[in-house]
Amino acid sequence: MIAALAIVLAVSMIGAIGGCARRQMEPVQIATEPPQASSQAGTIRQIGSTTVLPIAEAWQKKYNERHPDVSIAVSGGGSGTGIKALIAGTAEIADASRAIKDKEKKQADEAGIEPVEHTIAYDGIAVIVHPDNPLDVLSVEQLSDIFSGKVRDWKDVGGDTSEIQIVSRDSASGTYEAFKEMVVTLGKTDKERDYAPEALRQSSNQGVLTIVAQTKTAIGYVGLSYIDDTVKGIRVIPMGGEEAVEATVEAVKDGSYPVSRSLYMYTNGEPTGAVKEYLDWGKGAAGQAIVAELGFVPVAD
Fold first, then answer.
1. Helices 79-88 and 102-110 sit at what angle, rounded to 10 degrees?
2. Does 31 have pLDDT greater than 80?
3. CB count, 10 Å around CB of 213?
4. How many alpha carbons fall within 13 Å on the CB side of residue 287?
5. Residues 8, 9, 14: CA angle, nearest 5 degrees
């Protein structure tokens, strides 16, 4: 009996110890929820201007090196396309090489969207011709006559006798709008002027560059950063001026080049979270260094 009792007590003690051990281990469980994301985590869809596109792509690449948990999808399509996407809620950032239009503001208001403008760089629109073109200088007035179709032969502006082939961006482009405002309509002093209907319209700066580089009689315009040795940049005489100005970063910065503009990114309301941190970085030292490297003019030195 004594032996049996000892066995029973031993078994009970083992059970009690095991029960204590189980009770002590029960609160320690493997977490089934994902860890909290960092403050930069998020998804950013960035759509719009092909002029802004090189900046957006370079920012995305550099930013993701430090913040790989932020998903940034960048695409072009033109300023109008980007603003439409922002209004439709399919983009967090709309890239634009022109200011938002009144009709777009109205559409945004009707959709419950509040576009907020962020200036991220400055740019000059360079006028380009084929390298074999003998001309080096044209005035804003001459350029207006050419792009509106009033002048159709190079001999009428001091060049060789040959029909001018106009190459333009398409109407979805902010560069199209900016060049029309500053050059074609002579700074909005002649709103009846418009691009010549025979102009070849391209959806990108690269498209314009390629055609001009391959066509001896062509003239076009591109964002300053797109110029390379396949084309020749034309120096431009401002309206009513005498001295021709080359499209350079310095001339854009000091305001002497007559075909210059701001570049923008639009958000729905004041940005927050990942979008705010991304834009703050882009407008800061690191992002603006990239702007300068790409041939644009930083918003701050």
1. 20
2. no
3. 18
4. 21
5. 100
Residue 281: closest CA among 271, 295, 269, 268: 271
Q: Domains, the chain, ranges and CATH?
A: 43-122+262-293 (3.40.190.10), 123-260 (3.40.190.10)
Buried b / exposed e across 271-292, counting CB within 10 Å, b at 16+?
A: beebbebbbebbbeeebbebbe
157 neighbors 135 (Cβ within 8 angstroms): yes
Structure tokens at 34: 């994902």
How many C-alpha atoms does 278 have within 13 Å on its Cβ side?
36
The three-state secondary structure class of 40 is coil
- pTM for the model stands at 0.72
Q: pLDDT of 228-271, one tens digit each? A: 999 999 999 999 999 999 999 999 988 899 999 999 999 999 99
Partners of 72 in the β-ladder: 44
DSSP one-letter code for 297: B
Strand pairing report for 218-223 and 115-129: antiparallel
In whole angstroms, what is the distance from residue 6 CA to residue 190 CA? Answer: 111
Angle, helices 53-66/273-283, rounded to nearest 10 degrees: 110
Q: Rounded to an integer, what is the distance from CA 231 to the centroid of its chain?
A: 23
Neighbours of 103 (CB within 10 A): 8
Residue 297: both structure tokens together:
């003019």
What Cα–Cα distance (Å) separates residue 44 from each residue in 62, 277, 278, 295? 15, 11, 9, 25
